[in-house]
Amino acid sequence: MSENTTVKDDETKKNDDQTAALIVAQTFIAFSAIYWFLQIESVRELLQLAYG
Amino acid sequence: MPVSFFSAYSRTIAASAVIVLSIWVFYGGLSAAVYPGLLGFFEWSETTWFGVIGKTWGAAFAFIEAIHLIALAVLGGSIIASDGRVLGLVLTDVSARTVIDRTHTLFAWSLAVLLFTGVFMACGVATKIYYLQVFWFKMLALGAGMLFHYFIRKPLYQYDLSELNPVVVKMTAVSSLLVWFLVAAAGRWIGYSG
What we know:
Helix content of chain A: over 70%
Number of strands of chain A: 0
Number of helices of chain B: 10
Oligomer: heterodimer
Largest interface: A-B, 19 and 27 residues
Structural class of chain B: mainly alpha
């Protein structure tokens, strides 16, 4: 009985760790994509202003 | 029922709360409210031993900066090796568990050296970096990277990776690479600003 509970607890903890990782990873990837896109855009605009 | 949900998903709830809090602090006006009050601390840090040595003895600053950069290279290498192994790109002839465990020790030491040398360097140019937006951005990235490494990535990588959802494992590895790349890039950016 207690062994079943421990297995269930481990499974729940694993699910929690995976869900947390998924949420944070999605946030980082989305943030990085937007951030670097904006940085590259600003460099592109500066180069266009400087060299046409 | 709600109590069991909160205890079962405590890490997920904490991680979501930290994300929302960070967005609120940086984009919700709280950082702008706290920012002026920090100037006194930055001015004081230039008067400490670290600040005086860093400002008046260029060789000491250069020496510490060299150690900072070497530690950054070691930290970057440990991240590329472990996350690259998880993604199946490098060191594929060694087990992922071995690479993750061994690189974690390197990561922890290099991070400690980076923090110590970083504080020294920051004291030497405190009133300059206070006004640099990229410095605050680097601090945000560094904080996010450390929290991510110790509270998300490390607990996840302690499991047998084959038992985890492969998409989650690969997204975690990619995020880790991205956040430390951002820390390194923002760090070098400080050097070319102001």
